[in-house]
Amino acid sequence: MKRRTFLLGSVSGLSLVALTACVAPTPRPTASVSPTPTATPSLVPKPAAMRRTSWSADPFARGSFSFPAVGATPEQRAALGQPVDDRVFFAGEATSSDAFGTVQGARDSGQRAARDVVRAASPGERIAVIGAGIAGLSAARDLEDAGYDVVVVEARDRIGGRIDTVTDKDWPFPVELGAAFVRRTGRTSLDEDLTDRGVATAPFSNVPEARTAAGVVVEVPGTGAEAVATALAWAAEQPADVSIAQALADSGASKLSTTDADTGLSDADWLDYQITVVLDPEAGAPVAEQSSWYSEAGADAGAGADPGEDRIVLGGFATLLTDLSEGIDVLASSVVTRIAYSDSGASLRLGNGESLSAARVIVTVPLGVLKTKVMEFDPPLPFAHRGAIAALGVGTLDKVWLQFDEPFWDTDAPLWSTVGGDDDFRIWINMVPLTGEPVLVGLVAAETALRLAEVDDDEFLAAALSSLEPFYSAGPTATPAPE
Fold it and tell me: Per-domain residue ranges for the chain?
């Protein structure tokens, strides 16, 4: 089925497909592969190395970041961040009302949780922090510096959580499998903190070079964005929150022409583009799941301050984590299965059967993990916390990093997108103008990411290379992959 056909069906209410959870963990991908696709060979040459992610299948993440699901509210994020009996505290990007889904939101939440602990605790108390991501390490750093006895309990064999920087001799620079951007630099000091640590960042424009399936460069009209804006304005006047898909359908904003213009693209194609290239990646979820009241599509409207540019991290996001964890007691490869708390303190049960006691505990595990209920709370969390965990959405955005011997493309644009086709990877980052190296990073989101998370490396790579064909240039350095 054509992507545009599915889209029109979904926004008309005929096919609202629920975001399904992926529960089976998969091994970490290998550093490099050279598979032969079983489908028709692509014109695009095979890469020298590949790295891919599958965040939905990661048992310690269960998704990439939180998003505003239909019916969820910012107040629920605040509720999730409230202390429970001054014994259990929560942090993480999902508890941030104004910067959810970002590294800055996670870091701020960890610092906020540390302040909450200081207000409740006596000097020198033992504090357990569950999770060695940016939220957990930020909280641990502040508490350690304030004189508390801090232990960080981490399920993985590494620190960082959804910041996953891989330094490999086969790659010319650090590979960011997780977070790779500092968003809205006008509202954060994160880019300055990275610079202070010698980590390179670069300005990154959100305006892509768009191409048709035939490889023709086209200007992006306002058609799709205007349709979404019309739908969101209509939804804002409704008595209850509805999905963006329903808002598009019920407002009439999705009733666009399917007749191709001179470019071979119709107005409906441009609405599909706005959804698959803008909305789906921002939330990591389909528009049938996204709130029309709290969509990121209008998050910066009327913000009152210049949000600043976005910057891409080139020198290793994990450097920030290494500094934060210096001198901190980190208990790695330790899964917490139960948290019991009372007036006298808290007790953690680990997956290996051991126990750990503390006066108070800060929980920074991702929202996706909290939804699985693999971590038991005794007594159960208050209704406000359980309601927030159930209501807030978890989206998936996966990446493929491809390193080539030399470029097969002829554009200097750092950001690429495709329109009107059925490719799985609709967004690509060209690292040549940023680093000088022939490396491409493909992004895949929402239902497509969940589907591809279940395929092997051969099929995954075949989908990526097929999606790159609109950018293939049959120049002297371009060599098709052999059959």
Answer: 1-54+201-313+396-483, 73-162+315-391
446-460 per-position pLDDT tens digit: 999 999 999 999 999
- Residues of the chain with confidence (pLDDT) below 50: 1-38, 300-305, 475-483
Full strand arrangement of the beta sheet holding 201-204: 181-182, 310-313, 201-204
Does CATH number 3.30.70.260 belong to domain 73-162+315-391?
no
Residues 6 or more apart whose CB falls under 8 angstroms from that of 325 comprise 132, 137, 140, 141, 152, 159
Fold assignment, 1-54+201-313+396-483? Polyamine Oxidase; Chain A, domain 2 (3.90.660)
Site of tokens 């967004």: 427
* HSE-up (13 A, CA, CB side) for residue 9: 10
CA distance 194 to 271: 37
Query: Are 253 and 30 in contact, with CB atoms under 8 Å apart?
Result: no
Q: Sign of dihedral through CA atoms 358, 362, 364, 369?
A: positive
Please report which residue ranges of 34-188 form alpha helices under DSSP H: 74-80, 103-120, 134-145
pTM of the entire structure?
Answer: 0.88
Q: Which residue has the tokens 């997956």?
A: 351
Q: Burial code of 259-288, b = ≥16 C-beta within 10 A, e = fewer?
A: eeeebebbbbbbbbbbbbbbbbbbbbbbbb
Angle between helices 103-120 and 134-145 in degrees, nearest 10: 40
